Amino acid sequence: MGAGRFITFEGGEGAGKSTQVARLVERLRAQGIEALSTREPGGTPNAEALRKVLLEGLQEPLSPASEAMIFSAARIDHLDKLIRPALARGAYVVCDRFADSTRAYQGGTLGTAFIDGLEALTVGATMPDLTFILDLPAEDGLKRADLRRGSGKVDRFESETIEFHRGLRTAFAEIAKNNPQRCIVVDATRHIDTIADDIWRVVETRLLKAHS
Ligand code: T5A
Q1: Which of these, 55, 43, 42, 60, lies nearest to 13 by C-alpha position?
Q2: If you measure from the C-alpha of residue 156 to the centroid of ligand 1, how many angstroms do you get, rounded to a whole number?
Q3: Where are the domains of the chain?
Q4: Among 13, 37, 143, 181, fewest CB within 10 Å belongs to which?
Q5: Is the C-beta atom of 14 inside 6 A of ligand 1?
Q6: CA nearest 20: which of 195, 201, 158?
Q7: How confident is the model at residue 1 (pLDDT cuts 50, 70, 90)?
Q8: Ligand 1 pocket check for 115: Cβ under 6 Å
Q9: Residues sharing a CB contact under 8 Å with residue 39, sequence separation 6 or more, in sequence order
Q10: Which atom, in ligand 1's list, is nearest to the CA of 99?
Q11: How far is residue 207's CA from residue 176's CA, in Å, rounded to a whole number?
C-alpha cells in the first residue's frame, strides 16, 4: 500500500499527450502493474461536468481567476475520488494534464503568487513523481489538433491567438527549468514510437528500477 506513482503529461495543444498516456499505460500494464489513465479537466463524473463548462458551456467568458478556481475545483474532486485512492493502493496514475497546465494557461494573467497559493491549497503534497513536458512549436501542435478534430468545433483554448499558444511553450519551459527533478522535456516533433521509447526508458530508470 502507498507505493503508487503519479506521472503527468503536459504541453500545448496537440502535443501528443493523450497518445503518449495511452502508450505508457499499455506498457506498464504489460509489466503486470496496475496503471490508470486519466485526464484533466476531468477524470471523475463531477470533474467531467466541470470540463464541459470550462471548454464549451459558457454564456459569456469567465474572469481568469474564476476559470482557475473551476479548474482547481475539478482537480480537488479528481484528487479526492480517483488519484489519491489509486496511489494509496499502489497503482500508477498517468494523467493527461495537471496543475502545471493551470500555471501555464492561467498563470500568465494571474501571476505566480496567485498560482502558488491555489496550487498549495488544491494539490498539497500530491505533486507528480514525474512530469513529461511534450515540447513542439505551437503552430505544429495546433495543426495536429486541427487534423484530429476534423469538422468538430474548436474549444475555449484552441481558439486563443497564436501568441497565447507560443507563450504556453515558454511557460512550460520555465516550469521545467524550475522543477528539474520532476520535469523531463521531450522533443515531441519526432515519431510517436521514438517518443514512447524515450518516455519508457525514463520511467524504467526513474521509477521501476529505482523502486524494485
Ligand atoms: N487547461 C487544462 C487549462 O487551461 N488549465 C488547466 O488547469 C487544465 C488542466 C483541455 C484544455 O484545457 C486547458 C488546456 C486545454 O486547452 P483538451 O481537449 O484535453 O483540453 O486539450 P489537449 O490536452 O490539448 O488535448 P489534445 O487532444 O488537443 O492534444 P494532445 O492530447 O496533446 O494530443 P493527441 O495525443 O490527442 O494528438 C493530437 C493528434 O496528433 C497526432 C495524434 O494521432 C492526433 O491525431 N499525433 C502525432 N502526429 C505526429 N507525430 C506525433 N509524434 C504525434 N503524436 C500525436
Answers
A1: 55
A2: 13
A3: 5-208
A4: 181
A5: yes
A6: 195
A7: very low
A8: no
A9: 18, 21, 95, 96, 97
A10: 7
A11: 19
